[in-house]
Amino acid sequence: MDDSFQQGLRLDVTVSVCMSASPLVSLDDVRRAREVIAGRVHRTPLFSATLLGRQTGTRLFLKAENLQKTGSFKPRGVFNKLHSLTSEEKRRGLITISAGNHAQALAYAAAVEGLRCVVVMPESANPTKVAASRGYGAEVVLHGSVHEALEKMHELRESRGLTLVHPYNDPFMIAGQGTVGLEILEDLPDVDVVVVPVGGGGLISGIAAAVKRARPSTRVIGVEPEGAPTVTDALRAGRPVPLERVATIADGLTAPIAGDQTLAHVRALVDEVVLVSDEEIAEGVRAVLQYAKLLAEPAGAAGIAALLARRVAVPADARVAAVVSGGNADLARLQQVLSRVSL
Questions:
Q1: How does strand 117-121 pair with strand 94-97?
Q2: Apex CA 235: angle with CA 18 and CA 296, to 5°?
Q3: pLDDT (tens digit, 9 = 90+) per residue, 322-343?
Q4: Parallel, antiparallel, or unpaired: how do β-strands 94-97 and 163-164 relate?
Q5: How far is CA 114 from CA 61, 83, 110, 165, in A?
């Protein structure tokens, strides 16, 4: 992997406004984000999951971000980020790179705000997510591998003068995603553990910024696929390092490098990050569908997968909130996922 790719994902984000004196997103930053996005996103439910809880030995609750607008948590951060942009930055139009959920969220938010939007996606992107991004009005550019897609995004950004909206490595994005944590605390004030799927780290960074500041005794645990251990590798190295290979059914968790800002949040605020196999993720998808009657894409089921596989050590009867981060499952791929497990 060349240096331009690594530097692009890690460093190519400029934040023109400081959110607080701290280098980390604060609880007040998350609270302000909630005011900004109020009325623009759903306040998603926290469902009890009794049967799944029995299988995991916990009192389990599912934070249903698969029912969020565009089918994932992503619009929370996007709307907060767009609020921070200047009129000139908005006028130039927006651009991003995404495997799918961030692309949909940016396309949707840009349409709401009447802004031009370009999303660059690898050719292997989930067809359902590609179609949805176009449906919201974005110009979708499919280009090569994720490495080649990033180069294309930089090319288009420079040639058209577009404003980058980074998928995760941005404090406004992190604060927006942190509103998930605020809602969990409101619905389950005595939560013992929050389990969060991890891709680039924006969601868990925001949730941890909210939860650990408001209730320090609550453990926040991240879950990554074995085939895309982005944050795990960064924690081991002490810095963001590019993945040489990404291979997982959880396409929503395939960020090829952690952000410097998300890594800082994880190191400071997250208790543990664990890995799950694709087979365990597939079992998580099946279990959530069968017992909770919720459709989770593989990325969204990663937290439940970790609990079912006992990758997360929690006390008996602990109050656990697992974030179902997305539900944008392509039906053909869903059949392949479910074929991995016994129904």
A1: parallel
A2: 85
A3: 999 999 988 888 888 888 876 5
A4: parallel
A5: 37, 13, 6, 16
What is the b/e burial string over 79-114, where b = at least 16 CB atoms within 10 angstroms of the residue's CB? bbbbbbbeeebbebbbbbbbbbbbbbbbbbbbebee
Which is nearest to 340 in space by CA: 251, 250, 279? Answer: 279
pTM: 0.92
- Dihedral, 129, 131, 135, 140 alpha carbons, nearest 10: 90
The amino acid present at 38, given as its one-letter code, is A
**Residues linked to residue 63 through DSSP beta bridges, in sequence order:** 46, 323
User: Would you call 282 helix, strand, or coil by DSSP?
Assistant: helix
Cα 289 to chain centroid, rounded: 20
Secondary structure (DSSP) of 95-158: EEE-SSHHHHHHHHHHHHHT--EEEEE-TTS-HHHHHHHHHTT-EEEE-SSHHHHHHHHHHHHH
Q: At which residue do the structure tokens 């009325």 appear?
A: 39
CA dist list (Å): 80 to 32, 239, 250: 9, 27, 26
Q: Which residues are catalytic?
A: 74, 325
Tokens of 83: 């609020």
What would the pLDDT profile of 54-113 be if each residue is shown by its tens digit? 999 999 999 999 999 999 999 999 999 999 999 999 999 999 999 889 999 999 999 999
Report residue 13 as tokens.
């984000």
CA–CA separation, 195 vs 154, rounded Å? 34
**Domains located in the chain, CATH noted:** 3-19+74-164 (3.40.50.1100), 27-73+174-338 (3.40.50.1100)
Is residue 327 within 8 Å of 296, Cβ to Cβ?
yes
For residue 21, what pLDDT band results from cuts at 50, 70 and 90?
A: very low
* 46 — pLDDT class (breaks 50, 70, 90): very high
Interhelix angle 179-187/27-37, nearest 10 degrees:
90
